[in-house]
Design brief:
The complex is a heterodimer of chains A (161) and B (572). Chain A is an alpha/beta fold and 161 residues long. Chain A is built from five helices and five strands. Chain A is globular and about 40 Å long. The N terminus of chain A is likely disordered. With 572 residues, chain B is α+β, with helices and mostly antiparallel strands. Chain B has three domains: 143 residues, PAS domain (Beta-Lactamase), CATH 3.30.450.20; 165 residues, 2-Layer Sandwich (Beta-Lactamase), CATH 3.30.450.40; 147 residues, Heat Shock Protein 90 (2-Layer Sandwich), CATH 3.30.565.10. The N terminus of chain B is likely disordered. The chains are: A alpha/beta (161), B alpha+beta (572).
Amino acid sequence: MTDPVAANRTVLYAEDDPNDAFFMGRAFEKLGAGVGLKVVSNGREAIDYLSGVDEYADRARYPLPTLLLLDVKMPQLSGLEVLAWARARTEFAALPVLMFTSSAQKSDVDRSRDLGANGYLVKPSNSTHLHLLIQDILKVVADGLPADGRLPIKENLIGQE
Amino acid sequence: MTYSLPHLDSLPPSPSTDASALDVSSSRTDDAGYRAKNADYRAILDSIDAGFCVIEMLFDAQGRGTDYIFVETNASFEKTTGLVNAVGSRMREFAPCHEQHWFDIYGEVALTGKPVRFEQEARALHRWYSVYAFRIGKPEDLKVAVLFEDVTARKKADQRRVFLAEISETISYLREEAAIVRAVVRALGGFLDVDRCFFAELTDDGGQVMLGENYLRGAPPGFAGSMDLGQFGGLEFWHRLSRSETIVEDVTIHPLTQNIAEVYVRFAIRSFIGQPFKEAGRVTLLLVVSESSPRQWSPDEAKLVEDVVARVWPVVERVRSERELIAAHAELEQHVVERTAKLQAAVSELETYSYSISHDLRAPLRAMQTYAGILTEECGDRIGDEGRDYLHRIMSASERMDRLIRDVLVFSQAAHANTALERVELAPLVAAVIETYPGLNAAKADIEVVAPMAPVQANQAALTQCLANLLGNAIKFVPPGVSPKARVWTEAEDDRVRLYVRDNGVGIPRELHEKIFGVFYRDEPARDDTGTGIGLAIVRKAVERMGGRVGLESAPGKGSTFWLDLKHSPDD
């Protein structure tokens, strides 16, 4: 099924774990409703993608994302560094950014909130939970974030406290 | 001191004359009886230790005493005054600068006839006197008899005693070594009327002499610093000085200094007293008073320098010890700060490490679980029931592993996290736990909360964790067919509050009451594969961190009552 509105929407996912990247790709195939998923394997590449460096200059192949999913712990540049970089630029200041990581370390959650992330999600450990989460994320891709700028799902650790 | 001899004015006057028996110019000298009596009195006067003289006052035109002539002296006069062959001479001839007040006092006596008793210094004679003076003979003769004693020694001793007391008093208020040294050299230099006064101390390497601030007569203090010991005779000379008090009247003559006298003279030191202070056999310093010209030091002056050192140096030592103590204390505090910082860094690193372990352990686990799920979904129909059962087992085992990792993390947090205590209202906390935690809600369990509950001193997060674990256990371990029931209440006793959680579960045999609080303890055989065996270990760790205790009453078949003792938080 292809939603005409969603057709030119893209989620950029920075993830160094190939398994997690695979699961996300598979979930998007099943649930994506035409939303594209672009995966890069570290923070450096994420910034290259967003800046349109080299091959990423081809926006037909690498469209600017509607939402950014960032693993926190990655080689080269961490998700937090990408977040900080994006928030410092006017063109990405309002881009929805969700941190998507294995551990709910409080210092990381706090830092993400301070840097302006819209959500902090702990990676679910089975595909059922993953699918539920991605449906919520796709809703944001389709409708945008609510006025408070916070990802409106209960698993979001930002805004819970 | 007073005189034990009869005073001459108390002698019976002659009934036939108004002149005193001692009036040598009296017209009665021809009288044989008087002569004999005079001779007797004369003998008495010559036998006493006190000086005695009769003087005739001289006045200026304004009637002020200006001088006097010695008319008669006794045998002790010369010894007591140092004046030789005084009779017939004027005082001003001996001592042109004799203080005016002497003439004023004697003039007054001669004019008024009122006897006086006083103590006074005669600088010209370098002495102090205790004096009794009275008019003698006819008023118009203007004669005064003076009976006096040399009290210089007592007076000087008094002054030294006062001086030492003042020095002790002054330095007792001072907290800095330099200030003490300054006060002492100024006071002693001034008191002894010397050119220079200073403390000298050998440096640790023995090559230099550290000089404290100098007293210089008539000049501002200066000269603090170190000097090369070599030119002053070297270490050997220092040791010689250090052995005992050194009194040098003239550096050019004294055997100790004559070979290096020119160095001393160059520094305007011609004579000096060096008084060492020894502590535990080691010489720590010298107090030196010096003069730019030769000086005959009196034993009293040498003693005074010794007394000053004896009084001052312990104070200097004390001040130094205090300073070292303060420095040591500051250093210790610095150590504590550094150690604490290191410890905090270590704890923080440990936490980060725990998280990173959890992150690294959980990633492959997540992959295993998810792949197993995908396999079930996509190939379930091809691998048959048995295959699906194995996949299910893989997923359950990895889920359990995941819970274990998370609980270990919680436990490590309970052990290390900051558990700052605050006032916690128990009723809302218990309600929130019941509402939030799946499995505790009314549909699944009957939990009765008995109000009111006493407030406690606790850490909100840690106590929440404890309650969730206790309530979770309470409803989990029930016999088959029994619906779980729990009751929560508090009892306050003194400054403690005991929070009870009672259940209708299977109960715990006595021998396991301690074991169940250990990490990874699980009820065997496992009736429930969702447990990790860490829950009660977390409770105990968290309660201990809040300064409380945890315990239980339980027996198989009778249910269990767990309790937490926490500090009562009294109303303000």
